[in-house]
Design a protein that fits this description.
The protein is mainly beta. The chain folds into two domains: about 5-180, Jelly Rolls (Sandwich), CATH 2.60.120; about 185-305, Jelly Rolls. Helix content is about 10%, strand content about 40%. The chain has three helices and 22 strands. A seven-stranded antiparallel sheet has the order 2-3-4-11-6-9-13. A six-stranded antiparallel sheet has the order 1-20-17-22-15-14. The longest helix has 13 residues, at about 10-20.
């Protein structure tokens, strides 16, 4: 999906200062206060659209994070709802790639003309140059997200195939890259990045890498599923070569970025850009569950990450 399909929302204001800071000739600009950068999911801001990429029915969504929110190669995070028997039609992107996420229900995903059903919560990678589509085949309205990153900073594209996939043949087993957002799949203990010799992360913080750097063809670095137990905090993360977009799937807590601390809660989006320090603390009574999307500063940083020579 392209940003042209969506009008500006209040989320644009939340990241405006970040975009200015990234623009040439504006190096002195300061980022917005942390609390203003945290964007809630607000269905009242969703824009209704029909036949998205020639898809079936209608849907509604808004932009939570815009272009450049975590670095030059990040294009957007969209959040919305897809009613039953509605979807996004079969289309290509040749300079960007996406990840469709459903938080509930069941959807029929198509990648490169092969279709399979997945139950939510689940994530499907739509790699650069691979055609893709989604159709809600269940009875309940899907809670849906789409992340997009680019191979060329500031560029997006789309080519529609005019196919709503309502008559697609469904494979019994998916033939495309996907993963379930299942807490039970997160290991009981997690070691920090860097291999077996790396120190363990603090007690109460566990994660699972859903998609590694080699999954993506663009500057997209990885996708993680993170759990923080009540009272626990993540280590301070120095974003030397990667920006990260966090989406709170459940729970509540605080995020610290540099000297600032702000509260976060379910269905908040939090951008942390290249060059910032960040950490999370669970101040609630249930696990703080985060979806983490990392995008490299540039393709050189992505290549270094793949080769194992870069620090995340």
């Amino acid at each position: 999906m392209t940003r042209q399909t969506l009008g500006l929302s209040h989320a644009g204001l939340a990241v405006a200062a970040i975009l200015v800071a990234l623009a040439p000739g504006h190096m002195a600009a300061q980022p917005a206060p942390l609390a203003a950068r945290i964007v809630p999911t607000d269905p009242s801001t969703y824009r209704p659209l029909t036949a998205v990429h020639a898809g079936a029915g209608h849907m509604a969504f808004a932009g939570l994070l815009g272009r450049g929110a975590i670095g030059p190669h990040f294009n957007f995070l969209h959040r919305g709802e897809i009613p039953s028997r509605s979807g996004i039609g079969h289309h290509f992107h040749n300079t960007v790639e996406e990840m469709f996420v459903i938080l509930n229900g069941e959807a029929q995903f198509t990648i490169n003309g092969r279709t399979a059903r997945l139950a939510g919560p689940a994530a499907v990678v739509c790699r650069m140059g691979d055609s893709h589509a989604i159709l809600n085949t269940g009875a309940e309205t899907l809670q849906w997200m789409n992340f997009q990153a680019s191979s060329i900073a500031g560029v997006g594209d789309a080519f529609d195939l005019g196919d709503d996939r309502t008559s697609a043949v469904v494979d019994p087993v998916p033939t495309f890259i996907h993963s379930r957002l299942d807490r039970s799949l997160i290991p009981a203990s997690t070691r920090a990045a860097g291999g077996a010799a790396a120190p363990p992360v603090p007690t109460g913080v566990t994660s699972r890498r859903l998609f590694a750097p080699t999954v993506f063809r663009s500057a997209w670095a990885y996708v993680d599923h993170l759990l923080i137990a009540p009272g626990a905090s993540t280590p301070e993360n120095a974003h030397e070569s990667l920006g990260e977009a966090y989406y709170v799937l459940a729970g509540s807590g605080t995020v610290k970025v540099g000297p600032e601390t702000a509260p976060v809660r379910r269905w908040n989006a939090i951008p942390v850009t290249v060059g910032e320090l960040s950490s999370f603390t669970n101040t609630g009574s249930e696990p703080l569950e985060l979806l983490v999307v990392a995008v490299a500063r540039d393709m050189e940083a992505k290549t270094a990450l793949v080769r194992g020579t870069a620090r995340p």
